[in-house]
Design the sequence.
C-alpha cells in the first residue's frame, strides 16, 4: 500500500493461481474491473512446474556430490520441507528410489566421493518416514552384500554399500552390537567374507569411537576370534588394518608393525656396481648381476654356487621362472673397447638350470631395432612359459621413438629357437622409457609396467590395450611390486604409493593410491612387498621398512663402515629381494656387495645405529 501526492490511495494486489484455477481467475478479474473505471489488471503467466518429485529428489541428491558443507545442509532442509508439506506414501518411495539410484547404484566410488554425507539426509526426514526409509535401506544393502563372491572379487561394486552400512552405524540408525554381530556371521561364510571385511573396515574407519566405547566386549571377543581364524593371504591387509586400529595384537606377539631388520652378513664377489637381484623361492637361492658382467648364484650360506661370465653384455634387470628353471636377463652392451662388445645389440639372455644347480645358456635374443631393453619379468603363475620386456625402439636417426612392452611365449615359438623368438603381443601405450615391471600374483596373464611417463599400467596379455592405469606419481616411476591384491610403487618424486587392484573394474580403469608416503627428501630407488602388510624400500639416503597398515616407516640400522667401524656404511641399494618367508632381505648396489638383513635377533650382527 502506498499514497500518491494527492489523497487517493493506490492498492496493488497480486494473486497466484495454478493452471487448474485459471477459469476462476478470469471471473475474479472481471469483478475487479467493475469496481472502478481506473482499475488496471495485468496477467503474469508462469511456467508450470512439471518436474516429478522423483526428479526433484534425484537432482537435489546429486548436487551433494560437490558438497562444501553448506550444500549438504541446504539440500537436507529442502528435503525436510517437502516431507513436512506433502509427506505421503508416494513421496517417501520417490525419495528412496532417488537416494538408492544416486548413492548405491551411481558412480560415487569411481568419482572417489564419500557415501557417508548422503546418508545424513535420512536423519532429516520426519517420522515415521525416517524409520521406514532406514529399514528399507538396510534391507537393500544387506541383500546386495550377501551375494556370493570369491576372495579376489572386484570390491568396487560394493564399496558404496559397505560405506553406507558403516554410515548408518555412525548415525546410530543401526546398533553397534547388531552391526558387528551381522558382520561376524558373514565373516564365517567364505562366499561373504570379502564383503564382510570391507563392511568391517569401513565401520572401523567411520565408527572407531563407537566400537571401542559402546560395543559389547563379548561381541568384540568373538569378532577377534573369527579374524584370527581367517588365514587367506588375500585378506591379510584388511585384517592387519582392523587389528591395528582396534589395538589388537596377534597372539604370537606380532601385529601390524614389522619385526625390525638388522644387519647379518655380506656376500662379496662382484667387481662393479650391482644392478639386479633375483630370488628363487623354490630352490632358496639368490642370483645377482653386476656391471662387471658377472652373474653369481648364492646359497643361503653365502657361498657361490655358480658364476656366469657374460662376454659382451652386463645385466641391468633379471628374473627367474622357478617352475621352468629359466633365468632371463636384459643385456646391455659393455662399455669396453673390444670389437665384440661394441657390436653387441641389446638382448634378452636366457639360461636354463641343470639338475646340478648349474646354469647353461638357453639362448640370446638380440634386438637390432631396439635402443635398450630396460626391464624383464617372467610369468611365474599358471602353466605358461611367458616373459615380458620393456623396450625402447630405435628411430630412423637412432633416436628414441617409442617405448613398448613386449610379451614372449616360449611355448608359441614355431622354430624352437630362442634367438628367433618373436613377441606374441606388443603394447604401445607408454609415452616414455619403461623402467620397471612386476607380475600380478595368482594370475599368469596380468602384469604391471612403470615408466618415465609417471604412470603404471596394468596389462592382460590376452587384451590389446592396458586394462588399468595407476596414477599419482609426478616423476619417473622407478619401482613396482605386487602381492595378492596390493600394489606398491616408488618414484623419483620421493613418493611411495599403495593401491588396491580390486578397486578396478570395466567402468573404472583409473586407480588412485590408497596411501602415499615420503620416507626422506630423496628419490625412491626400489620398493618390494614382503607380505600384503609390509614392504622394504631403498632411497638415495637409506633403507626402510614400511607398515602398509599404519603407513609408518622405520629406517633400517645399517652395516658398520669397514674403514670407520663406529659409523654406518654409506651405500645406495639399486635392488632389493626378500627370501621365501620374508625373514631376510637382500640388498645390493654401489659398494659391489650384497648385504643381508635378518629379523632373527640371534643371527643379527648389531652395528651402531645411524
Sequence:
Amino acid at each position: 500500500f502506498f499514497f500518491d501526492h494527492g489523497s487517493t490511495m493506490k492498492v496493488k494486489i497480486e494473486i497466484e493461481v495454478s493452471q487448474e484455477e485459471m477459469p476462476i481467475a478470469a471471473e475474479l478479474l472481471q469483478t475487479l474491473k467493475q469496481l472502478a473505471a481506473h482499475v488496471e489488471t495485468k496477467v503474469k503467466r508462469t511456467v508450470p512446474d512439471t518436474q516429478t518429485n522423483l526428479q526433484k529428489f534425484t537432482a537435489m541428491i546429486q548436487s551433494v556430490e560437490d558438497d562444501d558443507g553448506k550444500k549438504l545442509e541446504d539440500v537436507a532442509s529442502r528435503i525436510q520441507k517437502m516431507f513436512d508439506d506433502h509427506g505421503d506414501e508416494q513421496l517417501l518411495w520417490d525419495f528412496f528410489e532417488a537416494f538408492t539410484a544416486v548413492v548405491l547404484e551411481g558412480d560415487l566410488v569411481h568419482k572417489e566421493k564419500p557415501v557417508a554425507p548422503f546418508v545424513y539426509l535420512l536423519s532429516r526426514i520426519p517420522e515415521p518416514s525416517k524409520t521406514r526409509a532406514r529399514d528399507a535401506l538396510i534391507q537393500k544393502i544387506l541383500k546386495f552384500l550377501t551375494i556370493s563372491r570369491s576372495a579376489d572379487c572386484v570390491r568396487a561394486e560394493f564399496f558404496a554399500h559397505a560405506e553406507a552400512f558403516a554410515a548408518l552405524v555412525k548415525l546410530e540408525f543401526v546398533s553397534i552390537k547388531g552391526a558387528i554381530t551381522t558382520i561376524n556371521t558373514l565373516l564365517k561364510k567364505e562366499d561373504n567374507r570379502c564383503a564382510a571385511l570391507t563392511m568391517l573396515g569401513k565401520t572401523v574407519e567411520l565408527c572407531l569411537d563407537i566400537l571401542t566405547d559402546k560395543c559389547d566386549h563379548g561381541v568384540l571377543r568373538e569378532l577377534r576370534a573369527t579374524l584370527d581364524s581367517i588365514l587367506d593371504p588375500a585378506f591379510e591387509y584388511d585384517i592387519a588394518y582392523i587389528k591395528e586400529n582396534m589395538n589388537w595384537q596377534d597372539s604370537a606377539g606380532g601385529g601390524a608393525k614389522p619385526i625390525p631388520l638388522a644387519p647379518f652378513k655380506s656376500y662379496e664377489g662382484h667387481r662393479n656396481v650391482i644392478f639386479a637381484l633375483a630370488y628363487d623361492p623354490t630352490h632358496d637361492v639368490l642370483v645377482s648381476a653386476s656391471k662387471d658382467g658377472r652373474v653369481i648364484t648364492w646359497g643361503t650360506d653365502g657361498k657361490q654356487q655358480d658364476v656366469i661370465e657374460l662376454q659382451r653384455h652386463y645385466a641391468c634387470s633379471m628374473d627367474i621362472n622357478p617352475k621352468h628353471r629359466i633365468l632371463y636377463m636384459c643385456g646391455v652392451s659393455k662399455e669396453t673397447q673390444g670389437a665384440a662388445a661394441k657390436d653387441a645389440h641389446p638382448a634378452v639372455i636366457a639360461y636354463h638350470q641343470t639338475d646340478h644347480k648349474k646354469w647353461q645358456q638357453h639362448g640370446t635374443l638380440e634386438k637390432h631395432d631396439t635402443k635398450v631393453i630396460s626391464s624383464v619379468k617372467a610369468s611365474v603363475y599358471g602353466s605358461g612359459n611367458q616373459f615380458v620386456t620393456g623396450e625402447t625402439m630405435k628411430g630412423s636417426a637412432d633416436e628414441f621413438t617409442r617405448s613398448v612392452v613386449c610379451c614372449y611365449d616360449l611355448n608359441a615359438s614355431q622354430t624352437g629357437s630362442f634367438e628367433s623368438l618373436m613377441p606374441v603381443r606388443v603394447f604401445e601405450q607408454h609415452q616414455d622409457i619403461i623402467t620397471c615391471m612386476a607380475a600380478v600374483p595368482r594370475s599368469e596373464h596380468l602384469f604391471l609396467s612403470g615408466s618415465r611417463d609417471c604412470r603404471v599400467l596394468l596389462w592382460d596379455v590376452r587384451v590389446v590395450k592396458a586394462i588399468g592405469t595407476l596414477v599419482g606419481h609426478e616423476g619417473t616411476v622407478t619401482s613396482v611390486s605386487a602381492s595378492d591384491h596390493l600394489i606398491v610403487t616408488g618414484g623419483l618424486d620421493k613418493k611411495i604409493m599403495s593401491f588396491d587392484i580390486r578397486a578396478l573394474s570395466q567402468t573404472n580403469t583409473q586407480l588412485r593410491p590408497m596411501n602415499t608416503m615420503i620416507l626422506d627428501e630423496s628419490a625412491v630407488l626400489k620398493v618390494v612387498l614382503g607380505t600384503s602388510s609390509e614392504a622394504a624400500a631403498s632411497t638415495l639416503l637409506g633403507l626402510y621398512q614400511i607398515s602398509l597398515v599404519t603407513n609408518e616407516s622405520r629406517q633400517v640400522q645399517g652395516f658398520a663402515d669397514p674403514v670407520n667401524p663406529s659409523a654406518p656404511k654409506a651405500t645406495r641399494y639399486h635392488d632389493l629381494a626378500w627370501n621365501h618367508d620374508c625373514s631376510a632381505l637382500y640388498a645390493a648396489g654401489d659398494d659391489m656387495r650384497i648385504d643381508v638383513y635378518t629379523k632373527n635377533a640371534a643371527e643379527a650382527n648389531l652395528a651402531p645405529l645411524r
